[in-house]
C-alpha cells in the first residue's frame, strides 16, 4: 500500500509541474506530421520500395497540425497565431475575447479562469505581474490574494488605488503549482501583452518581479539589479516609448520583509515621476 501511495504521489507531482503526456514507443518526426498522432504498430511492416514523391506528399511536408485539446500548437506556431489574433484587436474588449479564444498555450487547459486585467484602463500607470496565483485563478482577477492586498497598500502609500492604476500579468493563466513560467509559455502569450500595452497606452509601466521585468525589457539581469532604475520600452506597432520602472514583486516582499525599504524608495521614485509628467 505504501508503494502504491508513493506512485500516486509521484504521478500527481508530474501533473502539477505540467508533465501530463506520455512518450510513444517509437520516435516521430513532427515536422512532417499533418494529422493526429496514431499509435505505432508493434508488428514489423513488410519492406517495400520507396514511392516517388507526388504533389500531394510535397504539399503536406512540413505542414503543422491544427490545435486541439489533445494536440496544442507548438511554440513557434503559437507565437505566430497569438500575434495575428492580438493584432486584430482594436479595443480591450476585443483583445480579451481573442485571448479567451486562444488555445496556443497549454496552461489554459489546467487553469480555472483566464485572468485578463483589473483597475482603470484609463489610468496613467500600468502594473504588470508574472502570472495568476491560486486566488487569482479562482476569482479571475489579478492580485487579489495576499500579495494583492500588499500591492493595494503599496499603491495607497503614494495615493493610488485600483481606480487610478491598471493591473495585468505576463501570463493570463496560472502555471500548475504556481511554478515559474517557461520561455515557451511566455513567448506564446507575449503578443497579447504587447497589444495590451499598446491599447492602454500608459504613461508609466511598472513590471513587478524578475519575470515581468526581464520579459518587457529583454534583459538578463535579475530584479534586484533592475529595480529602482528607469528604462525605456518601445511599444510594438505604436512608435512610442514608455518609461519603465521595475519593482520587487509583493510576493517577494512577503518572503523578504527587509526588502520593503527598497520597495518604499521605488514607490517614492514612481510618485516623483508621476508628479513630473502630470
How would you describe what is shown here?
The chain has 278 residues and is an alpha/beta fold. 44% of the residues lie in helices and 9% in strands. It is built from twelve helices and six strands. The strands form two sheets. It has a four-stranded mixed β-sheet. Strands 5-6 form a two-stranded antiparallel sheet. Strand 5 and strand 6 (240-244) form a beta hairpin. Helix 3 packs antiparallel against helix 4 and helix 3 (75-88) packs parallel to helix 8. It is globular. Residues 30-42 and 53-71 have low confidence and may be disordered.
Order of helices and strands: HHHHHEEHHEHEHHEEHH
Low-confidence segments: 30-42, 53-71
Integer-rounded radius of gyration: 23 Å
Tally of helical segments: 12
How would a textbook summarize the main sheet? 4 strands, mixed
User: If strands are numbered along the chain, what order do they take across the biggest sheet?
Assistant: 1-3-2-4
The share of residues in extended strands comes to 5-15%
Shape annotation: globular
- The proportion of residues forming helix, as a percent range, comes to 40-55%
Helix vs. strand class: alpha/beta
What is the count of β-strands? Answer: 6
Mean pLDDT: 83
Distance between the termini: 67 Å
Quick structural overview:
The protein is α/β, with parallel strands linked by helices and 278 residues long.
Blueprint (SSEs and pairs):
Elements lengths: L1 H15 L38 H6 L14 H14 L3 H10 L5 H4 L7 E2 L5 E5 L4 H6 L6 H12 L8 E4 L13 H18 L3 E4 L2 H8 L5 H4 L4 E5 L4 E5 L5 H6 L4 H18 L1
Parallel strand pairs: 2-3, 2-4
Antiparallel strand pairs: 1-3, 5-6
Helix pairs in contact: 3-4, 3-8
Amino acid at each position: 500500500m505504501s508503494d502504491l501511495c508513493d506512485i500516486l504521489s509521484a504521478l500527481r507531482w508530474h501533473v502539477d509541474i505540467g508533465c501530463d503526456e506520455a512518450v510513444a514507443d517509437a520516435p516521430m518526426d513532427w515536422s512532417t506530421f499533418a494529422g493526429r498522432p496514431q499509435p505505432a504498430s508493434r508488428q514489423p511492416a513488410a519492406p517495400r520500395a520507396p514511392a516517388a514523391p507526388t504533389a500531394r506528399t510535397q504539399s503536406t511536408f512540413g505542414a503543422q497540425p491544427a490545435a486541439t485539446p489533445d494536440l496544442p500548437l507548438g511554440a513557434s506556431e503559437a507565437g505566430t497565431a497569438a500575434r495575428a489574433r492580438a493584432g486584430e484587436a482594436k479595443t480591450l474588449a476585443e483583445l480579451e475575447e481573442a485571448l479567451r479564444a486562444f488555445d496556443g498555450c497549454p496552461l489554459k487547459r489546467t487553469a480555472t479562469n483566464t485572468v485578463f486585467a483589473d483597475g482603470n484602463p484609463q489610468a496613467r500607470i500600468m502594473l504588470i505581474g508574472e502570472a495568476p496565483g491560486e486566488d487569482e485563478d479562482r476569482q479571475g482577477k489579478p492580485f487579489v490574494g495576499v500579495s494583492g492586498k500588499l500591492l493595494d497598500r503599496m499603491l495607497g502609500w503614494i495615493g493610488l488605488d485600483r481606480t487610478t492604476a491598471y493591473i495585468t500579468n505576463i501570463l493570463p493563466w496560472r502555471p500548475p503549482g504556481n511554478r515559474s513560467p517557461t520561455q515557451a509559455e511566455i513567448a506564446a502569450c507575449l503578443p497579447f501583452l504587447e497589444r495590451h500595452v499598446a491599447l492602454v497606452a500608459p504613461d508609466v509601466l511598472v513590471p513587478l518581479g524578475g519575470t515581468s521585468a526581464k520579459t518587457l525589457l529583454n534583459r538578463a539581469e535579475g530584479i534586484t539589479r533592475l529595480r529602482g532604475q528607469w528604462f525605456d520600452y518601445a511599444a510594438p506597432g505604436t512608435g512610442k516609448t514608455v518609461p519603465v520602472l521595475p519593482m520587487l514583486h509583493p510576493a517577494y516582499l512577503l518572503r523578504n520583509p527587509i526588502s520593503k525599504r527598497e520597495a518604499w524608495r521605488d514607490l517614492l521614485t514612481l510618485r516623483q515621476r508621476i508628479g513630473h509628467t502630470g
